[in-house]
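R.M. (postdoc): so does anyone remember the format we settled on? I'll just put the C-alpha cells first.
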C-alpha cells in the first residue's frame, strides 16, 4: 500500500479545508487558463476598466490629485527596478552572477548619488559597499518602490556615500534562468533556503566584492533575506570575514506560525501538502495575472485582507497610496519547496535545513531517533543588529536571541509590523537612522564592538552601546 503522509494526522475539519482548498485552486487554475489563452487583450482591459469604475462607484472614492497620489501613479507605472530608480533621478547598473550550481542571478547596483552618473559602469567606486537582500516572494524592487524617496533606505544609503547593491533569489523576476534547467522544468524549482545559503548569498557577495575591489561589505536583509544570511554565515565561516555587519530588518528564523489556525495547523501537520496544492514549481504564479486585470486599489485591498487573515498584520503604519504602489511590486516568483521548508521550520520550532525525509514520522519521545540538521547560527562571528517590530507576529525575539551568538543586539520598533519596516510612514525617522547608526559603528573601528551583548534596547533609548 502506498504511503499517504496525511492519513491519521488530520482532523475532519482539516480534511474539509483540504477539499475546499483543492476546489478553489482547480477553479482558479481553470479561470486563469481561460483568461490567458482565450481572452484577447481588449477584453482584459475592459475588465480592468470595469473593476476601476465599480471601485469608485461603490466606495464613493474621489479622484485625488495629491502629490502622494501622483507619486503612487508613477510608481505603479514603472515596469522594473531601473524605471523605479529613474523616477527619482538615480542611474542603476545591472549585473549577472553565475552560481556554482548553474543559476544566473540578477544583481542591481546604485553607485552614484541622485542626478549623478558613474563614468565607468561596472568598476570600483572606492566607496564602502552595502548589500540589500529582499524577502520571500519578493525581488529587489521592494527597496525602491516608495512614494517618497526620503523613506527609501536604499536611496538614503546612496546619498550617505555608499555603493549600494541589491540581490535577487534564484527563480524571481530577475533571476529566472539556469544553464542546466528551463524554468518550465520542475528541476529548475527544486530549491529551498539551503540553496540560497550554500550558493546565492555567498556567490553574490563574492562577485560584488570582486567588482567593487573591496575586502568587506555590510549586509542588510529583510525577512527571509535575513534568514538566508543567518544560514549562510553559519555554514560558511570564511563568509564572516567578508561581512563587517549584518543588519536584520524584520528578522526571520523560526517563526511560531500563521494567524490563520486552519492553514497553520494543516501545513504544520504535513508541510508537503503544499506540493499537492501548488505542484513542484513556483508558488502563486497566477498573482501577476490577477494584478494585470484588477484595479490596483482593489488588488491592494485583497492583499491587505490576506495579510490580516494569515499574519494578523493590519498595516496601519503604511499609507493607502503607498500600499497601492508597493503591492504592485511586491510579488515575485519563488519555489513551492522554499515555502515547504518554512513550514518544516515552524513545525519543528527550529531553524533547520530542508528535511528531505519528509515522510518520516516525528517521534515525540525524550530521545528522538531522527533530527534534521540545524543551521549552527550561534557560530556566526559577524556583528548582528536586529531591528524588529513589537507587533510583528513572525518575530519571537527571545527565541531568536537564544539561537544567536551573544554579541547580537536587538532593537525594538514600537508599533511596527513586518512590512512597516520597509514602507511605513515614519521609516525615515525610526528605521533609517538606526541602520545608519549601526553602519557608522561597524564599518569603522572594529575594536569596540558591542560592549554589552544580547541586549534588547527600548524604543525610547539611544543606542549608546554603539
Amino acid at each position: 500500500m502506498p504511503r499517504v503522509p496525511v492519513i491519521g494526522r488530520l482532523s475532519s475539519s482539516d480534511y474539509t479545508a483540504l477539499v475546499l482548498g483543492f476546489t478553489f485552486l482547480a477553479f482558479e487554475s481553470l479561470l486563469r487558463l481561460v483568461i490567458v489563452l482565450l481572452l484577447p487583450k481588449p477584453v482584459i482591459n475592459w475588465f480592468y476598466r470595469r473593476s476601476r469604475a465599480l471601485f469608485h462607484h461603490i466606495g464613493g472614492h474621489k479622484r485625488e490629485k495629491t502629490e502622494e497620489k501622483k507619486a503612487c501613479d508613477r510608481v505603479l507605472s514603472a515596469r522594473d527596478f531601473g524605471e523605479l530608480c529613474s523616477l527619482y533621478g538615480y542611474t542603476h547598473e545591472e549585473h549577472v552572477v553565475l552560481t556554482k550550481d548553474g543559476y544566473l542571478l540578477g544583481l542591481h547596483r546604485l553607485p552614484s548619488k541622485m542626478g549623478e552618473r558613474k563614468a565607468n559602469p561596472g568598476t570600483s567606486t572606492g566607496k564602502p559597499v552595502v548589500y540589500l537582500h529582499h524577502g520571500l516572494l519578493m525581488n529587489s524592487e521592494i527597496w525602491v518602490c516608495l512614494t517618497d524617496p526620503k523613506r527609501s533606505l536604499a536611496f538614503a544609503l546612496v546619498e550617505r556615500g555608499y555603493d549600494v547593491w541589491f540581490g535577487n533569489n534564484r527563480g524571481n523576476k530577475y533571476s529566472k534562468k539556469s544553464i542546466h534547467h528551463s524554468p518550465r522544468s520542475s528541476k529548475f524549482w527544486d530549491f529551498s533556503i539551503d540553496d540560497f545559503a550554500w550558493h546565492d548569498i555567498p556567490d553574490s557577495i563574492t562577485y560584488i566584492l570582486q567588482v567593487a575591489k573591496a575586502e568587506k561589505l555590510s549586509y542588510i536583509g529583510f525577512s527571509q533575506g535575513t534568514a538566508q544570511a543567518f544560514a549562510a554565515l553559519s555554514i560558511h565561516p570564511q563568509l564572516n570575514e567578508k561581512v563587517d555587519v549584518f543588519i536584520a530588518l524584520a528578522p526571520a528564523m523560526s517563526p511560531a506560525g500563521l494567524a490563520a489556525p486552519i492553514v497553520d495547523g494543516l501545513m504544520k501537520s504535513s508541510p508537503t501538502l503544499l506540493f499537492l496544492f501548488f505542484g513542484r514549481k513556483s508558488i502563486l504564479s497566477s498573482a501577476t495575472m490577477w494584478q494585470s486585470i484588477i484595479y490596483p486599489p482593489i488588488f491592494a485591498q485583497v492583499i491587505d485582507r490576506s495579510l490580516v487573515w494569515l499574519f494578523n498584520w493590519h498595516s496601519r503604519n503604511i499609507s493607502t497610496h503607498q500600499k497601492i504602489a508597493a503591492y504592485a511590486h511586491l510579488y515575485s516568483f519563488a519555489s513551492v519547496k522554499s515555502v515547504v521548508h518554512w513550514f518544516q521550520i515552524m513545525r519543528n520550532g527550529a531553524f533547520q535545513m530542508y528535511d528531505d525525509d519528509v515522510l518520516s514520522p516525528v517521534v515525540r519521545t525524550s530521545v528522538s531517533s531522527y533530527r534534521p540538521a540545524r543551521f549552527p547560527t550561534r557560530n556566526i562571528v559577524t556583528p548582528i543588529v536586529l531591528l524588529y517590530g513589537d507587533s510583528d507576529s513572525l518575530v519571537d525575539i527571545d527565541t531568536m536571541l537564544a539561537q544567536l551568538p551573544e554579541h547580537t543586539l536587538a532593537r525594538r520598533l514600537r508599533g511596527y509590523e513586518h512590512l512597516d519596516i520597509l514602507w511605513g510612514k515614519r521609516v525615515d525617522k525610526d528605521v533609517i537612522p538606526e541602520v545608519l547608526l549601526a553602519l557608522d559603528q561597524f564599518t569603522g573601528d572594529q575594536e569596540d564592538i558591542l560592549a554589552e551583548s544580547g541586549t534588547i534596547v527600548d524604543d525610547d533609548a539611544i543606542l549608546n552601546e554603539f
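R.M.: ...and that's the designed sequence above, right after the C-alpha cells. Also worth knowing: Confidence is low (pLDDT under 50) at residues 1-7, 360-364, 445-466. The radius of gyration is 22 Å.
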